[in-house]
Amino acid sequence: MASRPGPGRIALASYIGSVIEWYDFNIYGLAAALVFSQQFFPEFSDTGGTLASLAAFAVGFVARPLGALVAGHFGDRFGRKSVLVFSLLTMGVATTAIGLLPTYNTIGVWAPVLLVALRLVQGIGVGGEWGGAALMAVEHAPPNRRALYGSFPQIGIPTGILVSQLAFLLMTQVFSTRAMEDWAWRLPFLFSAVLILVGLLVRMSITETDEFEKAREKNDIAQIPLVEVFRRSPLHVLSGSLLSLAGPTLGTFLSVYMVSYGTHQLDLDSSTMLWISVGLSLPWIAMMLGAGRAADRVGRKRMFMAGTGLAVLAVYPMFLLVNTAVVPLVFAGLLLMTMANSMINGAQPAMLTLMFPASVRYSGASLCFQIGSIVGGGIVPLVAESLFARFDTSIAVAALISGVCAVSLLAVIPLKRALLDVGSVPTVTHESTRTDPDEAVALQQST
Question: Which residues contact 21 (CB under 8 A, 6 or more apart)?
């Protein structure tokens, strides 16, 4: 009998796949902030072109719940592995196709139409990624390491962002601004084809989780998981969606909006903002792993509340530092918000996935995360750009970010028993009650 890969290998596979997915997803965001307004929306003003590019960027977030629904349905019925392979392939094909897309000057209005269509496909692909990758990592993990292992797909996000930023930085260093705008921007998209081949090889080597296999053996497989998750856990869907607002909001705010803000509002060079983002990615990864490990010790909910609380307050001094346009102070301000984001994302995967029973877990966790991503990751940057254009002050943007994070904080406060007992109690062991504070409380509450 072939040996099953250990939880560390599964976490690593989830991480690698997540890196590739988010590389693909984020290079679109960088191109939208830096290039697409000239290539696909030349009829607009500078501000209008940026808004149109960010609107096209937001389309991917709107499509993500559709991907989550499709992936959740098949993932809960037939298994996590095959769906993860399909989501990776879907993302890779769409990203590579963007690199081959003619611009507005070549085919006119069809260029932005096709760009938006491919962004929709990207959104469907990444919509199925997060839930499956988080489930594979969390369900394979030892009970006292669920937050830590669940953070591996999350650190794939800043790593993918880092790789995409390095790709664009390389392009800006090697090619002139004119060449970059004309054709060199395509190269990071085309490079996706190579990454997808690597990712598929890794994904094909993983196995299904024991929890899903046991559910299948017991015939505890929902025929229509989406209906079942609303029937069994409607409040969890609502709460999970609201608590999922903060992470995508801060992630996109830091990696996409602030790059655009620094270049267009502070007149910093685009390569400078990209280097700042690259510099943030490494501590982002380290802090997220640290937050995941700490969440296993002190509890997922406590870590999440600390992160959202910090984000509510820290966005105002962040802008005070960033608006100086002094590079070290810009970096310090963004690092402060990166810390808050790391605390949120270190705790969220285990917290969110274990809110749902295994038979509908893919559907429930994916749906909540992607609904949160529509608002947090897709709409918030667009609203932020509009608010600044209208009020000409970063205070309006700070209030928006603070308010969204406050909603996530308020959503998790009442989730004591509801957050802990549904997903955690059935899998509590003597080891987990000793080392996992959330599951220990859940066990006490259930007896």
Answer: 87, 88, 91, 125, 126, 129, 156, 160
The pLDDT value given to residue 444: 39
Q: pLDDT digit string (tens) for 47-66?
A: 666 667 767 777 777 787 88
Residue 213 lies in a domain: yes
In a domain, 444, yes or no: no
Tell me, what amino acid is at 20?
I
Task: Give the total number of structural domains in the chain.
Answer: 1
Cα–Cα dist 274/164, whole Å: 10
Q: How far apart are CA 240 and CA 378, in angstroms?
A: 18
> Helix, strand or coil for residue 103?
coil
Q: Are 138 and 74 in contact, with CB atoms under 8 Å apart?
A: no
What's the rounded mean pLDDT across residues 150-165?
85
Structure tokens that stand for 418 in this block? 């509801």
The burial of 6, by beta-carbon neighbours within 10 Å (0-12 exposed, 13-18 middle, 19 or more buried), is given as: exposed
Residue type (1 letter), 327: V
Q: Tokens for 315?
A: 């966005």
- Greatest mean pLDDT range, 32-41, 62-71, 172-181, 333-342: 333-342
- Is the separation of the CB atoms in 63 and 124 below 8 Å? yes
Q: What is the domain range of residue 98? A: 7-415
Q: Is residue 390 a part of any domain in this protein?
A: yes
